[in-house]
Specification:
Length: 389
């Protein structure tokens, strides 16, 4: 079977892509906390591991995309261990959702990292709710859909500012002591990453048929993403909520540039709903900008995290791009850049199979989970997660 995306034949990459995906899925399982009655973190996993052995545990959004990646691996490879790992992550993710009668204003929201974390980033909580929707689609267990609905109800009440833009984050309780526990929430800014939030609402609409999920609030986010967040150079940048201007210092250090945090995917859904050319033009504007940055090594940034995000976005929008295609061979070079960052180190299972994301020796699940989903979907029989339809 040939695999052609936007005019480029990628069929020859299939064996390498599927091998990379299996190694990624096995890495996720190797990083997962064991089941133990004494472990509050059972089912969680190490999202980032350094060459010195230092590790960091996952946040709610890492769990969300880990779940999707492992369920996709189960779909393609047929090995029950991947589904088991995903459901263990789901159990831990459920423990992050808040149902305290003593904090009714936060009912249904997700804590960021652990059941004690006193805050969350709203964009990350969107992903946690998105995982609940996908778990419902996988299991048909109504609890998961209800959990997604509860988060949505919290968001509509508390998750947007006066302009209707999703807020950066929310603090639930007093911060832990110590500078290492400082809470960095910038609600004075409109975060560029919230273009990706459109995906959850669109998929809730697709699942339920209820147009409430893609109503005026949704279209306001889509419109602002294009007219306020997207800059003349084609990239999306966080802006001052009052002035609409890009701040001198990006608090995320351009993390979301080549990696648009699934924003173009969100615009694809908005375009399919409305047919507004404004959305499609914004996607093309971003694609032109990002491929103009592609270097000799095939990457568009020092990080390889954008590689699977861009590949997936082009794949998911290929039917609405008109006559536009990426530069000749650009997608293949993007794949080669991604593959070049995969660590082969069987002696260290907490690193083996993951991507050295920024070329500094640290492996990270940001690139890993996005790649696992995209590679299995495009080159295998994986599930259609991160879909723009």
């Amino acid at each position: 079977m040939s695999i052609v995306i936007a005019g480029e034949d990628l069929t020859g990459f299939a064996p390498k892509a599927l091998m990379a995906a299996r190694d990624l899925a096995d890495w996720l399982l190797a990083c997962q906390m064991p089941e133990n009655h004494f472990f509050a973190e059972a089912g969680d996993y190490f999202v980032s591991c350094g060459p010195d052995g230092k590790t960091f545990r996952s946040a709610n959004w890492n769990l969300a995309f880990g779940i999707m990646g492992l369920l996709s691996a189960y779909r393609h490879f047929g090995d029950e261990k991947y589904r088991t790992g995903a459901m263990r992550m789901a159990r831990y993710l459920k423990s992050l959702q808040m149902f305290s009668p003593f904090q009714p204003e936060h009912y249904g929201c997700f804590r960021e990292m652990s059941p004690q974390t006193p805050w969350c980033y709203v964009r990350d909580a969107v992903s946690a709710a998105w995982a609940m929707l996908e778990l419902y689609r996988e299991t048909k267990d109504g609890e998961y859909l209800e959990r997604a609905m509860l988060w949505y109800r919290w968001f509509r009440k508390h998750g947007m500012d006066a302009a209707g833009w999703p807020i950066w984050g929310v603090q639930f309780e007093e911060a832990f002591a110590g500078p290492e526990n400082a809470i960095r929430i910038h609600n004075e800014l409109h975060g560029c990453f919230h273009g990706g939030s459109l995906n959850f609402f669109y998929q809730m609409y697709r699942e339920t048929g209820d147009r409430e999920f893609v109503g005026d609030f949704y279209l306001n986010i889509a419109d602002r993403f294009v007219t306020e967040i997207q800059q003349p150079d084609g990239f999306f940048r966080s802006v001052d909520a009052l002035t609409g201007k890009v701040p001198e210092n990006d608090p995320q250090n351009a993390l979301h540039r080549g990696n648009d945090d699934l924003g173009t995917l969100g615009l694809a859904g908005a375009f399919r709903l409305t047919g507004k050319e404004l959305y499609r033009e914004a996607i093309l504007k971003f694609f032109r900008a990002v491929f103009a940055r592609q270097g000799a090594d095939g990457g568009v940034e020092a990080s390889c995290a954008p590689d699977p995000v861009i590949l997936n976005a082009v794949f998911e929008t290929r039917d609405i791009l008109g006559n536009w295609t990426p530069p000749a061979g650009a997608l293949g070079r993007l794949l080669e850049h991604l593959f070049s960052r995969q660590v082969k180190d069987p002696v260290h299972p907490l690193r083996n199979g993951a991507f050295d994301e920024s070329g500094d020796g640290w492996v990270c699940a940001r690139s890993g989970c996005y790649a696992l989903i995209a590679l299995l979907k495009i080159f295998g029989r994986g599930k259609t997660y991160l879909a723009g339809k």
